[in-house]
UniProtKB/TrEMBL annotation:
<dbReference type="InterPro" id="IPR025503">
    <property type="entry name" value="DUF4391"/>
</dbReference>
<feature type="domain" description="ASCH">
    <location>
        <begin position="232"/>
        <end position="290"/>
    </location>
</feature>
<protein>
    <submittedName>
        <fullName>DUF4391 domain-containing protein</fullName>
    </submittedName>
</protein>
<dbReference type="InterPro" id="IPR007374">
    <property type="entry name" value="ASCH_domain"/>
</dbReference>
<dbReference type="InterPro" id="IPR015947">
    <property type="entry name" value="PUA-like_sf"/>
</dbReference>
<dbReference type="Pfam" id="PF14335">
    <property type="entry name" value="DUF4391"/>
</dbReference>
<dbReference type="Pfam" id="PF04266">
    <property type="entry name" value="ASCH"/>
</dbReference>
Length: 368
């Protein structure tokens, strides 16, 4: 099984009744196991005398258990319970019909996807069984160990990352649905704080921009010291950039310009959104070909045809908003008109929002 050496093979059934008796399990615990599992068999033992790999400091051997399931929709807690009850390192082959998945408990249950049992394979890689076991955990859990982390540290980081991503998705959804600008602004602040925490979990190598800009025709713009670059965006999208919810702007064209970019809400009227005003200042720090990975940050559902470009934005700052009639593409605005205030989602920005933006939102039909 699993393509493991024949010398490791064995066939020893573990009667469920023996497990119940040895660990004095109560009726409820027995019923949970019985509901999911029909049979448990030890099918392989990985040990130094069987695979010619020396024992490690922690792992002297480990076993492969074939668990015959009654249903694919099993309770993960059942496997976790077995792992905790049996004081051995165990790789589970969870089989249902002709398909199976591999599972392992290492601080938590980790599993592969279902596939035909005869296609399941695991490789024994490592100078000793400590390293072999770690590599098995990495393979089953699809763990990408980042530089400087141990396996346990990486699993903990991944769990924190998943939790943050769920919280970010929840607050982003709430913020996008929120009609009241002040509450929307506050929810966006929570999103920004969580994204900052998420960034801190990422390794420096992951944070590098991998996408490369090709050799397509480029619109080149130079900026005068007396002007700032500006772009006009539909009011609802300008508001999302202002709130920090939208960090990528899709454009069919690209530019060589990098630096401060004034976001102007176009003059199209939309209830609850400021229109016809310069709204905030951002930093345009890169422009790359638009792909599916940019959809969420661009607040888009699908990649346009042609795909166009992702304008990557950061460092959103409030300004004293002023009426401005926008133009197509990038354009210059007299720098003397622009008074940059505080970064969004700071205490100062909350005060400035009340002072400079609230009345404009009320005039646009927003509720407070």
């Amino acid at each position: 099984m699993l393509g493991l050496p024949k010398a490791t093979e064995m066939s020893k059934q573990l009667p469920k009744k023996a497990i119940y008796a040895k660990f004095q399990m109560n009726t409820a615990a027995k019923e949970k196991i019985d509901a999911d599992i029909s049979r448990i068999t030890i099918v392989n033992e990985i040990a130094p005398n069987k695979v010619n790999i020396p024992a490690g400091d922690e792992v002297k051997n480990f076993f492969v258990l074939l668990v015959s399931l009654k249903r694919k929709e099993f309770d993960e807690k059942t496997i976790a319970t077995l792992s905790k009850l049996i004081p051995q390192n165990i790789l589970f082959v969870l089989e249902c019909g002709s398909e199976s998945k591999l599972a392992i408990y290492h601080t938590k249950i980790m599993q592969t996807d279902w596939k035909p049992t005869e296609e399941q394979r695991i490789e024994l890689q490592g100078l000793n069984l400590d390293k072999v076991w770690e590599n098995v955990v990495v393979a089953v859990g699809s763990v990408d160990i980042e530089q400087g982390n141990t396996l346990d540290e990486q699993i903990e980081v991944n769990e924190k990352r998943q939790k943050l991503e769920k919280e970010i998705a929840k607050f982003e959804k709430q913020a996008r649905a929120e009609k009241q600008p002040k509450k929307k602004f506050e929810l966006a602040g929570k999103v920004k704080k969580l994204k900052r925490e998420l960034d801190m979990l990422s390794s420096p190598s992951k944070a590098m921009v991998a996408a490369m800009i090709g050799n397509e025709t480029t619109e080149t713009e130079a900026q005068s010291v007396n002007t700032v670059k500006a772009i006009s965006i539909l009011p609802e999208y300008a508001a999302d950039i202002f709130d920090g919810l939208k960090t990528i702007e899709w454009r069919s064209w690209k530019t060589d310009y990098r630096g401060d970019l004034l976001i102007c809400a176009s003059s199209r009227k939309l209830k609850g959104c400021i229109s016809g005003y310069a709204l905030c200042m951002v930093e345009l720090f890169d422009v790359v070909p638009f792909t599916r990975k940019h959809l969420n940050s661009a607040l888009m559902d699908s990649v346009p045809e042609p795909a166009g470009y992702a304008w990557l934005l950061k460092n959103v700052r409030l300004i004293k908003p002023f009426p401005y009639k926008g133009k197509l593409h990038l354009y210059d605005v007299d720098a003397s008109l622009v008074e940059v205030l505080s970064p969004i989602h700071t205490k100062e920005a909350d005060i400035e929002f009340e002072q400079y933006y609230k009345q404009l939102y009320i005039e646009a039909g927003a509720e407070f």
